[in-house]
Design brief:
about 350 residues; alpha/beta; 7-stranded parallel β-sheet; two-stranded parallel sheet; 11 helices; globular; binds uridine-diphosphate-N-acetylglucosamine; EC 5.1.3.-
Amino acid sequence: MAKTILVTGGAGYIGSHTVLQLLLGGFKTVVVDNLDNSSDISIKRVTELAGEYGQNLIFHKMDLRDKPALEQLFASTTFDAVIHFAGLKAVGESVQKPLLYYNNNLIGTIVLLEVMAAHGCKKLVFSSSATVYGWPKEVPCTEEFPLSATNPYGQTKLFIEEICRDIYRSDAEWKIILLRYFNPVGAHSSGYIGEDPRGIPNNLMPFVQQVAVGRRPALTVFGTDYSTKDGTGVRDYIHVVDLADGHTAALCKLFDSNIGCEVYNLGTGKGTSVLEMVAAFEKASGKKIPLQMAGRRPGDAEIVYASTDKAERELNWKAKFGVNEMCRDQWNWASKNPYGYGSPDSTD
Ligand code: UD1
């Protein structure tokens, strides 16, 4: 019997790629998403890309904080596990509007966990972030590193991790995997789904992509005086399809072993600087990306990359793609969808 997975935030960037990989892997998926920061066009496209498996995808527009609606969903469907992506994720906005972030991310998660417990569904994969390592004292980051948060968005990731550890301590029937994502980039190789941030992108590659298609004049490089090979910040970029496959590996672990509450890094283990990433994108796209050198962005770490040993060893998962494939697929998506899922008038 195919297992049925509830995917919260499944219309978003990482969610939509994960739903596609789950469908292709033979899972049934039910997506709930409030569409605050995503489009249901991604759901339609995932359904098409999944071919005959597309019939195994059901979508409900729903906010997790709407407890009666979530209760009703759990009453009508038996879920084998939940993958919880839903949440707000813009660091700068979280500093401006902390209550919005605490309300959305924490209350949404608490309601979800309450309803799961009430219905005896106690298997969870949660989207955490490398942001919980703060400014790491050394690299690569292992799962045992001390945790810290420098902004409300990061706090919500940290709090939710702690909530998960606490509920497992209180009830050993729970099986929980916390996945700490490094920097997801790229898109599905079809170029049919990809990242489509609202407003001005905060993250590097969505910004680069918008410069390449002519929506923005230049990329501002935040910081050129870091102690790195070329002075710019170093990150662990991971292809979103590799990241999506990491969720299938995590689900298999939940179903096949006596895991309690465990945490895994999902990264490549390789560090790439801003200038290296821009060069790889220019090569993949044939477009010149004009640069504006600027000071450091407050709160930015110098070098962050993952230790991938634990995920390789225990999840049997390893990223397959490198930065050239990430940039090729990012450009394929960007050139086919210069305005994402919208039109020139629907974005700024
Ligand atoms: C950021 C968030 C992190 C979040 C992650 C999600 C901050 C401080 N951190 O991480 O909490 O989990 O996104 O993917 O926002 N850069 C530029 N110009 C730009 C944008 C970025 O030079 O316009 C540089 C940054 O200084 C950094 C690198 O590119 O060195 C990557 O930045 P970004 O994509 O925002 O990711 P993180 O900072 O790693």
